[in-house]
Specification:
Immunoglobulin-like, mainly beta, 1 helix, flat, about 550 residues, about 45% strand, six-stranded mixed sheet
Length: about 550
């Protein structure tokens, strides 16, 4: 067992557990409707024991007992292993007594799980291939007992796959041959193996073999939950210890027009089922002996493929009119005109839009996926910052448009026209290597400050965005809601800058009462102090 459970058991407990294993007595409450249900699990249902000299760590049976009841605690729980079926060739943890290993977690609350490890090694005189089973039990005073078995064999398979070097510059429309090889670094022969492959959306299988089954899969951990093209090939060739085998025919992969950052995940395991009957008359994929097996075994690898492809990101800004003290909505839009899809399963070049808030306005509502730009990354999403970085989620498909609407408040004393620059690149502030057309990677947020003759808040209207040369395409021209319609106030035209300093706070009032009467004239002046910016930034 694990170090947490390495202790000697009292003789009384050992005797009691022997009785439990011989005749399991279940209390009547175990059949009640409110009785807990105990679920057993092991990490591997089959364990192979290397022959001496042993590896650094013992082999282990990793087990768990879960209480799946909604609201009933399992009481007086005892977990035990009957090792009599393998004790002739295997040595176990010293806490095992008379072919019995036991642990008493006492109780397991609803939704919780008790876990542990049972260490075991092959005896020095064990015969290669000797096999048997370990019986795994759990009992409780208020739950039905449960049992499962684990197969233990002297000797082990050491199946692995060779790693294929990364490939850059794959041409869209071409076919790649995946030179996959499998090997056995263990001590037992595999009667056959299952080769499982999964290709990212920019790739597809160029040929289908009679002994492979093909279907979409989401079971690859590195897929991020995306559906990949999958294949499971049942290779009936025996794989002997110390031998390496290449595929009789390389697996062909078609590079699609949308390919950019791609990979093929491939892994090998002992065959779990015979190959499906071949009714197609198609080619059968097999194995051909091809040298010695390397060590140690690695049963999984990924072939990284970068296509020689580009994707055009088109950025659109927006213009709005508003009176001081009121708000306007400015929406940045970015579109992928392809031909490649930004699918970043094996790249960190995530698309991002760097947004500079126009001078004289304050961002009061920030879109999701946007954070304060720190000059090399993002912070929180609090309002009032001079610049934000907005992340475009992967995959960013061809023809897709993503919109980031910002709500800004126009400050007292804002310039008649003020703007901030927008730039599309990576979320780290660098240019996108795959974007070969960068003339449309910048745009602007522009606010025209208006005034109302009677001082009342004007009725909101809409105004067109910055000019977009691709306005006829999806998402090409953005509009935003203005909160004022009066004539533009006199004043200079100002453009915000990432290198400027200051905050997005409301301007301070110089005098406590905000009004000062000029002697003899009765004219009131509002004293203001222009804000300054304190952020860092810069265009990507």
């Amino acid at each position: 067992m694990s170090s947490a459970f390495r202790r000697s058991w009292p003789a009384a407990l050992t005797a009691a557990l022997t009785v439990v294993l011989g005749t399991v007595v279940v209390s009547p409450s175990a059949h009640a409707e409110d009785a807990p249900t105990l679920k057993l699990s092991v990490a591997r249902s089959e364990v192979g024991l290397p022959l001496p000299p042993y590896p650094e760590d013992s082999q282990q049976i990793s087990w768990g007992v879960e209480n799946t009841a909604a609201d009933v605690t399992a009481e007086d729980v005892v977990v035990s292993f009957d090792i009599s079926g393998v004790s002739a060739f295997a040595d176990f943890d010293s806490t095992c007594v008379d072919d019995l290993c036991a642990w008493d977690p006492k109780e397991i609350v609803p939704g919780d799980e008790a876990r542990g490890l049972l260490d075991l090694d092959a005896k020095p005189d064990a015969a290669l291939g000797a096999t048997g089973t370990v019986r795994f039990f759990v009992t409780a005073s208020n739950a039905a007992p449960a049992e499962m078995t684990v197969k233990v064999t002297v000797g082990a398979l050491g199946l692995g796959v060779t790693r294929i070097p990364d490939l850059k510059g794959a041409e869209p429309g071409s076919t790649l041959d995946a030179p996959i090889a499998v090997y056995n670094a263990g001590s037992l022969t595999a009667d056959g193996v299952d080769l499982t492959l999964a290709a990212t959306p920019g790739l597809d299988f160029a040929q289908k073999f009679a002994n492979c089954t093909y279907e979409q899969t989401t079971g690859v951990p590195s897929s991020g939950g995306q559906s990949l093209a999958g294949a499971v090939c049942h290779l009936a060739t025996p794989v002997a210890p110390g031998k390496r085998y290449r595929l009789s025919t390389p697996v062909g992969l078609t590079v699609k027009s949308t390919a950019l950052y791609e990979f093929v995940d491939y892994r090998v395991a002992a065959a779990t089922a015979s190959a499906p009957a071949d009714t197609s008359g198609g080619q059968v994929l097999g194995l051909v002996e091809d040298g010695s097996a390397p060590k140690p075994a690695n049963d999984h690898a990924a072939w990284q493929i970068e296509a020689d492809n580009t994707a055009d990101t088109v950025l659109t800004g927006a213009t709005a009119d508003a009176t001081p003290g009121h708000e306007a909505v400015l929406a940045a839009k970015v579109r992928n005109d392809g031909p490649a899809v930004f699918n970043l399963l094996n790249s960190d070049a995530q698309v991002g839009v760097l947004v500079e808030i126009p001078e004289g306005t304050t961002a009061v509502k920030i879109p999701p996926k946007c954070g304060v730009w720190t000059g090399g990354g993002t912070g929180g999403s609090e309002p009032g910052a001079p610049a934000y970085m907005c992340a475009v989620e992967s995959p960013f498909t061809v023809g897709e448009t993503v919109t980031f609407p910002f709500t800004v408040k126009v400050e007292q004393g804002a310039p008649a026209t003020t703007s901030g620059e927008l730039t599309v690149g990576t979320v780290w502030g660098s240019e996108l290597d795959a974007d070969a057309h960068r003339a449309n990677n910048t745009a602007r947020f522009t606010v025209r400050t208006t005034s109302s003759a009677d001082g009342a808040a004007p009725t909101p209207t809409a105004t067109a965005s910055d000019a977009d040369p691709d306005a006829g395409k999806a998402g090409g021209r953005a509009t935003s809601v203005q909160t004022g319609t009066g004539a533009p106030a006199a004043g200079p035209t100002t453009s915000g800058t990432m290198a400027a300093t200051g905050s997005g706070a409301t301007p301070a009032i110089a005098a406590a009462g905000a009004l000062a009467l000029v002697a003899g004239g009765g004219v009131a002046f509002l004293a203001r102090r222009r804000r300054t910016r304190t952020g860092t930034g810069g265009t990507a």
